[in-house]
Amino acid sequence: MQKLLPVLILAGFTSSAAAQHQIIIKGTVKGDLKGYNKVYVLESGIRKDSVEVKNGRFTIRIPWVKDTVPTLQAEHDTRLKPPSPAFPVVADRPGTVNIEVTDPAKGFRSGKISGSKSAVAYQAFEQGREKQRLEIKAEMDKRFENKPKHDSAYNVEFLALMMQRLIPYIGDFVEANADAYIGAYILGRYQPIIPEQDLQQFYDKLSPLQKRTRPAMDVQARLTGYKRALPGQDVVDFTLNSPEDQPVAFSSYRGKYVLIDFWSSWCGPCKASFPHMKELYQKYKGEQFEILGISIDEKKTAWLNELQKQQLPWPQLLDTKNVSVNSFAVTAVPTGFLISPEGKIIMKQVGFGENGDGEIEKKLKELFGR
After folding, report:
1. Are residues 136 and 166 both part of a single domain?
2. Which of 14, 29, 107, 331 is 20 to 30 Å from the Cα of 341, by its Cα?
3. Residues linked to residue 318 through DSSP beta bridges, in sequence order
4. pTM of the full predicted structure?
């Protein structure tokens, strides 16, 4: 998603021409915010601007840029309702979006949205999804009434049931909004959890106009990635930067078996796998084998800080070109790909077998005889 331009929070903004190219978010808040009166505008998870709620009202003006969706977070929510995720205001064109918060205790994202068809539709979608989640939770609690709740069996069954109902829900919504930006936006937002066949079917429902939007193009990139990530396919060469900001081409590893490890600084299972990966690296490293770590972190500082902590002995790159999606269709981390010396994909593995029982590790034992 394109970066937001600087937010304009102006007391006396009078230019009607400029106003026609803005998203204006007007909020009313009823209730005590306990002194936590700020509303933040976020860009890639980082707070870029803020405005204060005064006398129960606030106004934010943001230059409208195609395919850019403002993301808000209330100070009240972060202080009194943690964890409190930021929420997008899906306005697909210049205009005014109204947010009416009648109960701050429920969070600002619960406020009633009006004034923008896409923003209203997004909130309705999310409310339906949450209703679905609560219904599944109630059903699961009955199933596990006399069993331990929230253990692995509960979580696996809950997730399976959630996916079973959520995917058709997304598909129905996209079909009903195939000629509207919100249809493409929802598909783009939830694409990582949608199976490939369903994702292709949902994408095909979008109108030609909506297929030219950024969310739809992101979906198309993932669909291309699925095709490129099949065993036997040549890896499309790419160049990413090292921690020292040096460009490194994947083709420079030709002649070796390469284990590409997609990971991130916020991924617990990724970090849990590193001790055993270090043992694996010590066992196989040399002229015929290399591990290449590729982080999908959005924040370079988070990546560099984690590298400092982990002290990983194999090369590391930061995915600033969305290679993980458009060439490998990665949906979760850690995900590994074993690549042949000729640059062809041998196999893919989601997760890492810490006990030496992963499919890639079995293949390495077969290849190197140890």
Report:
1. yes
2. 331
3. 241, 295
4. 0.86
